[in-house]
User: Fold these one by one.
Assistant:
Number 1:
Amino acid sequence: MDIQNWVHILFRSLGAVVMLFVLTRILGKKQISQLTFFEYVTGIALGEIAGFLSTDVENSYLHGIVALSVWFFIPFLGELVTLRSKTLREWFEGKGTVLIKEGKVLEDNLKKERYTADELLEQLRTKSVFRVADVEFATLEASGELSVLLKKENQPLTPAMLGIKVAPEEEPQTVIMDGNILDEPLAAMGLNRGWLHTELEKQGFLLENVFLGQVDAAHQLYLDLYDDQVQVPEPQTKAVLMATLKKCGADLELFALSVENNEARRMYGNCANAMNAVIRDMTPLLER
């Protein structure tokens, strides 16, 4: 093979890679993460055509582009149509099959899906479920994923079940990565480099020694260092604030007990009650 053919294959391959990348991006993330059977076949076909398009120098490049376009437009139009029709969506993508109901395995549905008991138990174990009797409902989705709902008595305990209020969780922002400061997430938290350098100094670490740094909603900085032998102390901002509030409440109660003036005693008592109410409201935010 002469140099001209090598160059020809190089440019054909580059073109195929670019087209394949663009087409798969248009088809969406679902093409990668949750493949149905039809999408699986489409992905294989697009890859095969792109491969032939790269190396089959004897055939027309335009013919390959046409074939690639057909395998792109049919799934793409199919997705647009199935968005509007539940019937077509079930026909193209399939629908879920119930495999377990009220702790009982539905053997007929297992046979229908050609699913063995070993495969069912394996899927349950990936969901941290080791007893079929603990399952209220389990469905094999069209994507092949097993969705499991545990019986009420076997579900994990949550603060809502105990009537405990908790604060909403906000996404922590990564402000340091590979020893470099990321200004955009830092600004999104309303912070700047000066604040970050101050926090690093408080914890006694240099920026170049930090592999990863994240800031939570309470502006607490969590660090992961390159040297895993070094222990990084946990941020104490919330704990210090809670301790300060409790100390203020205790001081007010002490003042209420120690003063002789009735009006002052009443004022300190009211302030202590108000502080205790603040502590109760802040507890879900500061103790989690």
Number 2:
Amino acid sequence: MASNKTKRPEITNSQRPESKTVDVYDEYNQVKSFQITGELPLTIYLNKKEVVTLMTLGHYPESLVIGYLRNQGFVSKLSDIESVQVDWDTNSAAVKSISNLDEFENKLTHRVVTSGCGQGTTFGGIWDDLKDKNLQTTKLRQSSIYKILKLLHDKNEIYRKSGAVHGCAICDENNIIDFIEDVGRHNAVDAIAGNMWLNNIESTNKIFYTTGRLTSEMVIKVAQMNISYLISRSGITEMGLNVAKETGVTLIGRAKGRHFLVYNGHQNIIYDKKPEPRPEGSSDIWKRR
């Protein structure tokens, strides 16, 4: 009797750590140990042909690769794949398929970048241009951070109505200069970058705000725009922090109300508006979040 069981490809079983602990500075200018999410580039090669580079946590990379190829229409069934070999030393995934490479060429030449969060970005050439960048900045007052957050609170109009978008803004210490909402944070930041060129907005002493995570792609985009401050109400990834350290971007995450964490560049913050000390014995706000 013939078996209907699908033949499984040969795959590796690689994983990366979920997070790492770093020292950050809170709104009291006190050091705290805080976990950040790992983020790694993973370049998929199909029959030795480069397909895409995905940014990933790296928890289940083989499944990610197979699922990506399935959803993008490169393979129609699991048995089309002979093997998936993930190598974190080279941040690559080599996939061998029984299909002929010619069948993939049309897909590779008509690639569309979606508006979702981090769906495949290749930044080798961009990163080469950023390696020697060291952004210079004036110091930013804590009171200015609070003022910006207050102004931005009323700006996330679509998000409050539907919860299905990200918002980004370019600000100075007193005003919101431009604010854009889109279904993907990368679309929003790109639109602001375009508006800055079209409207001759200088990047000197500007602050960029996003509702999304501070991933490597977000930090790279802000560094390309020569903006030295990046603030988010969300968290940060390990690679985002590494890029910030390389380029000199001051990173402020989990910024909401009167709370924030400085992941990089705390020496650039003037703590002129520290909140009242927490009552003795009260729980740490960051442990409750």
